Amino acid sequence: MRRALTAAAIAAATLLAAACGSSGASSSSGSGASSAPVTLRLGLLVNITHAPALVGIRQGFFTKDLGHGVTLKLTPFSTGTEESTALLAGQLDAAYVGPNPAIKAWQTSDGRLIKVISGAASGGAQLVVKSSITSAAQLKGQSLATPSLGNTQDVALRYWLKQHGLTTTTTGGGDVSVKPVSPNSAAVLEFKSGQIAGGWEPAPYDTEMVQDGGHVLVNEASLWPAGQFVTTNLVVTQSFLAAHPSAVSGLLQGQIDANNFIHQHPAAAQAAANAELTSVLGKGLKPSVLAASFQQITFTNNPVASSLAADAQHAVNVGLLSPVKNLSGLYDLGPLNQLLAKAGKPQVSP
Questions:
Q1: Which residues contact 238 (CB under 8 A, 6 or more apart)?
Q2: Which one of 40, 54, 205, 222 is least enclosed by Cβ atoms within 10 Å?
């Protein structure tokens, strides 16, 4: 089991690109080379659903594509809720983040803070429970974990329970006690020890729960048309996008290159992601967990905007969000589509 990513560990793991062999400032010019020195503060989660970020860092794609004038400063987080808070506090310029934290940052800032500039991953989240539970009705009186209150998996669980006639509250009450547990690895430990009946978790933590004796009650992909729903988007602050468009272009090129590498070299991509997790957490994933986690996820530059809009409505329905207006304004896919067109790849739309 990987060690917990505490606040102190997060601070210690905040790396300047120059301090990490694969993500240091490059001496060569990349597609996003900037004329003046720029520091790009990038947030990411230590999840396989954020594998494009992990692979892009480890394989040096961001370094190459950002170019000589851009220094990448990386900050790993345990949850998207923490990332959203950091964005709102002005501590990040860009982040790989789930839909609900992105929606929250958009709404809290009255649409002035961020733009979604690319997708990154679809799928890779499941409700895993102990083997004796085979129906929603059996969850009444049980305790289930999610990464944090209001994060993407938390909203998904609460909405699914409501659809099955089970109530929850933000303080752990109701028919089912939903318990935000951070870091995710702590939820796996609580499941293994019998403190909780299961959890709606992203990969690799859902896979670890299965290997610790649980079974999948709900694969989130089964709840969406064609199995497609956004798990991870790449967002950037509007101020950074306006001030440093070439750096954003370089970041996007690194994202594209990372997803291309994942598709073309799956075994090497899994090894790269695991190496980056080991660098941050001190311990990587077991091969069986790593492979099963990658199999759950579709790595795509498409932000699957329709599912984000549905996520927003789900959060409203369970009382975690006020109605959100003009979500279409959340997207700026122009820079991404320029790069995709240049590479002869299909463009995406919000």
A1: 112, 113, 114, 115
A2: 222
Confidence (pLDDT) at 35: 60
Give the model's pLDDT for residue 318.
Answer: 97
In sequence order, what are the residues at sequence separation of 6 or more whose Cβ sits closer than 8 angstroms to the Cβ of residue 311?
A: 99, 100, 103, 152, 155, 156, 229, 230
More confident residue, 18 or 75: 75
The string of DSSP codes covering 48-91 is GGGHHHHHHHHTTHHHHHH-TTEEEEEEEES-HHHHHHHHHTT-
In contact, 133 and 139? CB cutoff 8 Å:
yes
CA distances from 19 to 71, 193, 283 (A): 11, 38, 19
The Cα–Cα gap between 208 and 201 comes to 10
Residue 53: name the closest of 28, 39, 72 by CA.
72
**β-strand partners of 201:** 126
Reported as a single tens digit per residue, the pLDDT across 311-325 is 999 999 999 999 988
d(CA 21, CA 320): 41
User: Rounded CA gap, 212 and 350, in Å?
Assistant: 39
Q: How many CB atoms lie within 10 A of CB 332?
A: 18
Instruction: Provide the token pair at 339.
Output: 């790069």
Two structure tokens written together for 55: 């692979």
Over residues 253-292, the pLDDT tens digits come to 999 999 999 999 999 999 999 999 999 999 999 999 999 9
**Two tokens, residue 50:** 């954020």
Calculate ∠ Cα 300-306-312, nearest 5°. 115
Distance, CA of 236 to chain centre = 14
Nearest to 250 by CA among 57, 70, 1, 52: 70
Kindly state the percentage of the chain with pLDDT values over 70: 90
